[in-house]
Amino acid sequence: MGRKKYRKPDYRRKVERLLRQYPLLKVAVEQLEKEYPSCIPMYELERVQGGDLSNSTQSYATRRAEKKILLERIEKALEVLNLDERFLIEEKYFDLNCPPDDIICHRLGWSQRTYYRIKQQAIEKLAFVLDLK
After folding, report:
1. Which of 2, 51, 68, 128 lies 20 to 30 Å (CA to CA) from residue 37?
2. Whether the Cβ atoms of residue 111 and residue 59 lie closer than 8 Å to each other
3. What is the three-class DSSP state of 82?
């Protein structure tokens, strides 16, 4: 009989996905703030699928607001982490090079056991604060 393959809990995958998106989301929000379309009233409406009418400025503002709210939620959640947890999260998820765990362990001077324990604690805290668990 084969061993059952370990599957990460859903909340953990969701937290990790949000953490990987965070640096890109931060840049996207900054870009959206710079590129905000004209606030002059436009009376042209666009027809969208389903027969609804939509204002492009309104949909732009909605997307921008949703991204900004998500960014703020992640930043608030990161505030509950202690220094070790925060440093680990920054090294693991905010580095766009995606370094493997053993390299991060070496950089931080931690054993793998310590690394995984701190990582698990951080993800548990973030899942709770982000209401994913």
Report:
1. 51
2. no
3. coil
Q: What is the pLDDT of residue 41?
A: 54
Which stretches of the chain are assigned E, i.e. beta strand?
A: 46-47, 53-54
Q: Is the Cβ–Cβ distance between 117 and 43 less than 8 Å?
A: no
Q: What does the domain layout of the chain look like in residue ranges? A: 10-129
The answer to whether residue 44 scores a pLDDT higher than 60 is no
10-129 has CATH 1.20.140 classification? yes
> What pLDDT, on the 0 to 100 scale, is given for residue 116?
96
54 phi and psi, to 5 degrees? -140, 145
Strands (E) across 6-124 are located at: 46-47, 53-54
The pLDDT value recorded for residue 6 is: 78
